[in-house]
């Protein structure tokens, strides 16, 4: 099987710039990960590859059927039903490997987010496609669901393409990474690196730094040659003044003879030759510089230290209710500067606990200290964030925009009436505004959902190095992210209709 993108050019109407220009990529059997910051065109590239978007020019050549699993699963189609219940042994094996029963399929509308992701993959694989394209397949998945999906995808023997921020998931399937990058209104550039995602990101960073160092070294040499030419020119002008007979008496034959002798000595010609040599070197270096791409080295990360300092937090023992489910929580004391991971399987009550903790803090007058970012923000919550941002004066807006840029996003959508900020951009806006408001307690529910891997790495560094004074409780299934950002784990365990929150030690340190 193969999939080839040949000389692809594409731009969205009224965007004013090319998203892709003369882009060519080839894919064969096996898995390839596509990574890059928000706005670099990852999802658009998948849609072009799958045939949902027609490029402005260039062509897509492929063998076999291409199926695209989008981030949001719209449900089974009649064709999906016919394949799933065809009685084919292959589909039966898929159901088993993905732990999906016929009863689950029948109650599709009531499935959890992780179960729906597994059902989406079952539907795609039941078609036996030659090309399978996945857009963020692990959003909202717990560890068990992710392992089930990895096991099923390892059996796929066609062309596989994945956009994902999940480094553990990516490394389990692929040793090839394509990184898209775009600066401002320029078309996306491509790095094709034969390494798993984490190592590919490190290699890309190393290449950029090496390229920037080479560029800066040539600029320094050009500046040096230019300064030498200027000094030689000044020396030549001084010498010309010394060789001038202007102002010498017509009767001073000795002085005139000395000047004539100096003019004939060849020293002036030597100076001119040196100037020509250094000017030629400068031109050669400028030609060399034109052939070196100048990578933009984004300033990343920012200090998140809050001004509204809270020495410690307390949450009393409670029985938290969600329908028929009860979560038992012991007395909790959180020291200032604690970075706590809240883990557990889907449905165990992690979000229930975090929301309850937030409600308790608000009830006891801690609202001005606390930022709570839920998994998914409502339209009303997003509108409120945007209205707060747009009410700032120009100087404050500029600082917030700078913060968002340093968290890995191009914040232009915040000013646009037609472009809708992505969920990831809204999370960054909330963090940037909270920094301006001096909040020192962060309650984050699945903060890596909707974030690209570039932004995730920046946030990890911010939380680990620049946010040491902050108190953080983070709910996440992303082990790599939690390992980088937290030092203590609280585990939520569920058995049937009841669960308990257990406190573990410094197992992430």
- What is the C-alpha radius of gyration, as a whole number of Å? 31 Å
Straight-line distance between termini: 45 Å
User: What share of residues are in beta strands?
Assistant: 15-25%
| Strand order within the widest beta sheet | 11-12-19-18-14-17-16-15
The main pleated sheet reads as:
8 strands, mixed
Count of helical regions: 16
* Structural class by secondary-structure content: alpha/beta
Shape: globular
* Unreliable stretches: none
Determine the fraction of residues in helical runs and give it as a percent range.
40-55%
Mean pLDDT: 85
Give your account of this protein's structure.
- With 509 residues, the chain is of the alpha/beta class.
- Helix content is 43%, strand content 21%.
- It is built from 16 helices and 19 strands.
- Helix 12 (379-390) crosses helix 14 (423-437) and helix 13 crosses helix 14.
Descriptive key words:
509 residues, globular, 21% strand, alpha/beta, 16 helices
């Amino acid at each position: 099987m193969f999939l080839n993108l040949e000389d692809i050019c594409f731009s969205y109407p009224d965007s004013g710039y090319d998203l892709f220009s003369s882009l060519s990529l080839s894919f064969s059997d096996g898995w390839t990960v596509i990574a890059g910051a928000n706005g670099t065109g990852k999802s658009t590239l998948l849609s072009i590859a799958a045939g949902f978007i027609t490029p402005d020019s260039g062509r897509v050549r492929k063998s076999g059927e291409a199926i695209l699993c989008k981030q949001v699963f719209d449900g089974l189609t009649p064709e999906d039903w016919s394949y799933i219940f065809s009685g084919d042994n292959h589909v039966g094996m898929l159901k088993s490997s993905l732990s999906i029963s016929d009863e689950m399929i029948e109650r599709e509308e009531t499935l959890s987010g992780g179960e729906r992701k597994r059902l989406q993959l079952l539907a795609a694989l039941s078609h036996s496609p030659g090309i399978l394209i996945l857009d963020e397949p692990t959003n909202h998945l717990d560890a068990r669901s992710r392992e089930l999906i990895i096991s099923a995808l390892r059996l796929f023997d066609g062309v596989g393409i994945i956009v994902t921020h999940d480094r553990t998931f990516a490394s389990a399937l692929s040793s090839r990474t394509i990184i898209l990058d775009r600066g401002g209104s320029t078309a996306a550039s491509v790095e094709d690196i034969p390494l798993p995602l984490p190592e590919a990101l490190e290699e890309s960073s190393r290449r950029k730094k090496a390229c920037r160092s080479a560029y800066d070294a040539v600029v320094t040499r050009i500046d040096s040659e230019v300064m030498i030419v200027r000094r030689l020119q000044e020396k030549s002008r001084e010498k010309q003044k010394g060789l001038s007979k202007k102002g010498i008496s017509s009767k001073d034959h000795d002085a005139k003879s000395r000047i004539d002798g100096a003019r004939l000595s060849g020293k002036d010609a030597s100076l001119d030759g040196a100037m020509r040599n250094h000017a030629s070197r400068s031109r050669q270096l400028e030609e060399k510089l034109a052939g070196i791409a100048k990578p933009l080295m984004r300033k990343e990360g920012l200090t998140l230290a809050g001004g509204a300092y809270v020495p410690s937090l307390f949450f009393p023992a409670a029985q938290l209710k969600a329908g028929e489910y009860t979560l038992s929580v012991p007395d909790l004391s959180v020291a200032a500067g604690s970075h706590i991971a809240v883990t557990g399987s889907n449905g165990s009550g992690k979000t229930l606990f975090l929301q309850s903790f937030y409600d308790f803090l608000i009830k006891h007058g801690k609202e001005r200290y606390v930022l709570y970012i839920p998994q998914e923000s409502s339209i009303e919550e997003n509108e409120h964030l945007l209205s707060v941002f747009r009410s700032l004066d120009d100087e404050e807006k500029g600082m917030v925009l700078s913060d968002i840029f340093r968290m890995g996003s191009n914040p232009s959508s915040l000013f646009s009436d037609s472009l809708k900020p992505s969920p990831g951009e809204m999370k960054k806006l909330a963090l940037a505004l909270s920094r301006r408001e001096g909040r020192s307690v962060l309650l984050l529910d699945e903060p890596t959902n909707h974030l690209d891997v570039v932004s995730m790495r920046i946030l990890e560094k911010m939380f680990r190095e620049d946010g040491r004074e902050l108190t953080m409780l983070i709910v996440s299934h992303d082990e790599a992210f939690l390992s980088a950002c937290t030092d203590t784990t609280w585990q939520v365990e569920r058995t049937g209709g009841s669960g308990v929150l257990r406190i573990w030690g410094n197992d992430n340190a």
